[in-house]
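hey so u asked for the seq, here:
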Amino acid sequence: MRNSILALFAVVAFVCSPPAFAAVKLDGDGIRDKIVGNTIQLVNENLELAIGAVLKDGSLRGSIGGKKISGTWSIKNNSELCFDLPNRNFDLCRVVFDHGSYFMLRNTAGNPSGRMEVLNGNPYNF
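ran it, structure tokens below
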């Protein structure tokens, strides 16, 4: 039930967010500074809620749609945040833009492919 409520909130926030006019594309160091040691919460282009602890050792633990996930994260080409989740046959890279209170993910063609928020630490104990 809690995940359903969180997913609904995330979808509404994604759809109703005002556009940001001063988005900044993050490089590899900028991405690392924002996410490592914290938890990311994102809604992807399929409107799935994903939550994951981004650990310093390159691992990622969390849930997608309420199901546990584990995998790795990395930075590619000093500009793309990449996720590899073998248990979901999921491997993708996204460019990250800082919009101040949230981050927009775009595929390498520049199309929007998700919205991400960063929570301090690991509040879900993944």
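The two ends are 19 Å apart (CA to CA). The first strand starts at residue 24 and ends at 25.
lmk if thats what u needed
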